[in-house]
Design brief:
- The chain has 696 residues and is α+β, with helices and mostly antiparallel strands.
- The chain has 5 domains: 109 residues, Alpha Horseshoe (Serine Threonine Protein Phosphatase 5, Tetratricopeptide repeat); 83 residues, Immunoglobulin-like (Sandwich); 180 residues, Immunoglobulins (Immunoglobulin-like, Sandwich); 136 residues, TolB, N-terminal domain (Rossmann fold); 89 residues, FlgT, C-terminal domain (Thrombin, subunit H, Beta Barrel), CATH 2.40.10.
- It has 14 helices and 37 strands.
- Strand 28 and strand 29 form a beta hairpin.
- Helix 2 runs antiparallel to helix 3, helix 4 packs antiparallel against helix 5 and helix 5 packs antiparallel against helix 6.
- The radius of gyration is 35 Å and the shape is elongated.
- The N and C termini lie far apart (71 Å).
Length: 696
């Protein structure tokens, strides 16, 4: 018995001597830092060899690292973000990938390529892609891989293009025989996961009014670059439309009236029409004059003059003429209605004597003229989220000489006493501009008469474009046992910033989280991934994100982000990013962008319609291939009528889509998706077949 006990003790001592994390024969020291160590006791198991091998490689002890990775693979041969060690203990485990990195650093490029290819077949990670690209670059440098051509780039860029929208979709296809390493649009690097021999790029560039150079550049792994450039002009200002004759309001006994005017635009006027009848057209003249003899019917006649510029902006003006005896009561009443509608309303309240007295007065215009603002209207909320249309007309005593909107001049005027204008003012670069803004229009005529009009407008975008319509996300704990707190905080901040910039998600900030979590719970949820998962179900979000950071090599960091559903606490997906040098701010920012791009791909913004309704159950035309996920939410919306100017018929604001109700996606299928109604926002609203829907 004593011999057996002694043998057991000797065996244990031998294991400790050969496997203790602090054993002198295993620990290596470099610049005062110990490598080849583990956080706990070295147990001689596969996860211990992997951890120690990673420590060796961080110090540059590559032979030792290789040996430990091979030993780890003897115990467990597959990479995983979540490898079970014992009981309910899990670790990140990538010996195949890290062995490939180790071999590459030893110059054994072909062996490294084989291991990295094997690793990517198990778990697709950004770090594996990065080193696979490094392998290809090395093979190009030593001549084993030929790079015969520059990247082939085809983009939808039309030369000398004039557009009337701030958002310019840039689409490009890029191909290269060795691999496209990066694509940049206006020097902003497009998020991609490793090099590709072929890739499609779609980016939206938000531009202010003016001339811009749009550049798309593609670089391959041999650093050969192809660039496409084009000049784009953003024109948010419609042509100025001046009416010289008739001077409104006009009463004439004649059966016709001569219409004379001009349209002016610095980028060129293409056409002028009256009631859809073409009066004049040009390939883009800066000034286009027009005239026409118009027939008159007895009483009020209204004509709509419309001019269009090269970008497609349109300005309209209503011309009203009364045909009849200028001295008749009917004509004088019409003039009063045009010039003093408020006086006519007051007189009507006083009965027939008051109206008779008003008609006896001279209906000549008073003052120096007026500014008539059609859009925006101060008594109605403005719904657009990107630009505000400021349109209307100035009626002056003499020829108009200057016109400004919020201090910015309208450059092309026609010189008529009546000028119609149309300009869009940017409200923001993708963010929600909700609040109040002031619109100020100022005009001056040749006689020095100055007109001013200032209105205060409430900006409240359609709910579908508002923050509330986006998918609510809570970013909880970001932590790393061996990563500096400053690096953790920076990666968390970049990830949150990238999510906000994509305008796809609504992040719950600390104030929102405090409404459902105590201060102690919140501190735990923001610092400890394990606590975050247990507390995440309390958060008012569809999903929450929990990040873990792992040191790689001397300067690198790998980020693993778990996407977890709040209703079930189930793991939805794992996102990852890799930073080769944590001191490089651009690399850290790209990591945040990469994580946001992966989350957006996981939850795409889709538009569709209801196929059928059965009680609270809905059938929607999305399929599993569209990327819809069980447990996600959708909005059912209803189209409202457009805002239309009563006088000119001009569409002041397009139809809007307002949310009616919310539903939970339950069964994504091959042909359609079932959903269940959660709440109805509009009283007495009925969900019907054919109604539009959009994912939150």
């Amino acid at each position: 018995m004593n011999r057996r006990i002694l043998a057991g003790v000797l065996a244990s001592l031998a294991l400790l001597a050969g496997g203790c994390a602090v054993g002198a024969s295993y620990v290596k020291t470099k610049d005062g830092v110990e490598y080849g160590v583990t956080r706990g006791t070295f147990r001689g198991r596969w996860w211990s060899y992997y951890e120690r091998g990673s420590s060796y490689m961080a110090g540059g002890f590559l032979a030792e690292a290789e040996a430990d990775f091979l030993k780890a693979l003897d115990g467990r041969a597959r990479d995983s973000w979540r490898a079970r060690t014992y009981g309910l203990h899990f670790v990140e485990y990538f010996p195949v990938r890290e062995l490939g990195v180790c071999l590459f650093r030893q110059g054994r490029v072909d062996e490294a390529e084989a291991r990295l290819t094997e690793a990517l077949g198990m778990v697709d990670t950004e770090r594996a892609h990065a080193f696979m690209d490094a392998v290809k670059r090395a093979k190009i440098a030593r001549g084993d891989l030929r790079d015969d051509t520059d990247p082939q780039l085809a983009a939808n860029l039309t030369p000398a293009r004039i557009i009337s929208e701030r958002e310019l979709p840039v689409e490009a296809t890029v191909a290269d025989d060795t691999g496209v390493a990066e694509v940049r649009v206006n020097e902003k690097r497009v998020t991609q996961r490793g090099s590709k021999t072929e890739m499609a790029v779609k980016e939206t560039v938000v531009l202010d009014e003016g001339v811009h150079e749009i550049t798309v550049a593609a670089k391959d792994l041999a650093d050969k670059e192809t660039t496409a450039k084009v000049e784009v002009t953003v024109d948010l200002t419609g042509p100025t439309l001046g009416i010289f004759n008739p001077i409104e309001p006009t009463v004439t006994p004649q059966n016709t009236v001569i219409l004379e005017g001009a349209a002016a635009d610095k980028h060129g006027v293409t056409r002028v029409s009256v009631d859809k009848r073409l009066l004049a057209e040009s390939p883009g003249a800066p000034r286009l004059s027009f005239s026409a003899e118009l027939p008159l019917a007895r009483g009020e006649n209204s004509f709509i003059v419309a001019s269009r510029d090269m970008a497609g902006n349109e300005t309209r003006s209503a011309v009203k003429v009364f045909q009849g005896d200028p001295e008749s009561a009917e004509a004088r009443l019409w003039l009063l209605r045009q010039r003093h509608p408020e006086g006519l309303v007051l007189a009507a309240g006083g009965g027939a004597p008051a109206v008779t007295m008003l008609l006896a007065q001279d209906p000549a215009p008073e003052g120096d003229g007026e500014i008539r603002l059609k859009s925006p209207q101060p008594d109605k909320p403005y719904r657009h989220s990107r630009t505000m249309t400021v349109s209307g007309e100035v009626v002056a005593k003499e020829a108009l000489t200057s016109l400004t909107i919020n201090g910015q001049p309208v450059e092309q005027l026609t010189g008529a006493p009546k000028e119609s204008f149309n300009r869009r003012i940017p409200l923001g670069d993708g963010g929600e501009p909700e609040g109040r803004i002031q619109v100020a229009v100022r005009a001056e005529d040749a006689g020095g008469h100055v007109l001013d009009k200032t209105v205060d407008i409430e900006v409240r975008p359609v709910a579908l474009n508002s923050v509330e319509s986006r998918m609510p996300v809570a970013v909880l704990a970001f932590a790393g046992a061996d990563v500096a707190e400053a690096d953790v905080a920076r990666l968390r901040a970049e990830t949150e910033g990238a999510l906000s910039a994509r305008a796809r998600f609504r992040q719950l900030d600390r104030e929102n989280l405090q409404q459902v979590l105590t201060e102690q719970q919140l501190a735990a949820a923001l610092a400890d991934p394990a606590q975050a998962i247990s507390l995440g179900r309390l958060v008012n979000a569809q999903i929450f994100l929990v990040g873990e950071l792992f040191p790689r090599d001397e300067k690198g960091i790998e980020i693993k982000v778990r996407v977890i559903g709040t209703e079930t606490s189930d793991l939805v997906a794992v996102l990852d990013a890799y930073v080769e040098d944590k001191s490089d701010g651009a690399q850290v920012k790209r990591a945040g962008d990469a994580l946001a791009a992966q989350l957006e791909a996981l939850y795409p913004r889709l538009s569709g319609e209801i196929l059928a309704v059965r009680g609270q159950e809905l059938l929607v035309d999305w399929t599993r291939e569209d990327g819809v996920r069980e447990g996600a939410y959708m909005l059912v919306v209803k189209e409202t009528p457009p805002w239309v100017d009563e006088d000119t018929g001009e569409v002041l604001a397009p139809p809007e889509f307002a949310p009616v109700g919310r539903a939970r996606l339950e069964s994504p299928g091959a042909a359609n998706t079932r959903a269940k109604t959660v709440d109805i926002n509009v009283e007495d609203a009925q969900l019907e077949k054919g109604m539009p829907a959009v994912t939150m």
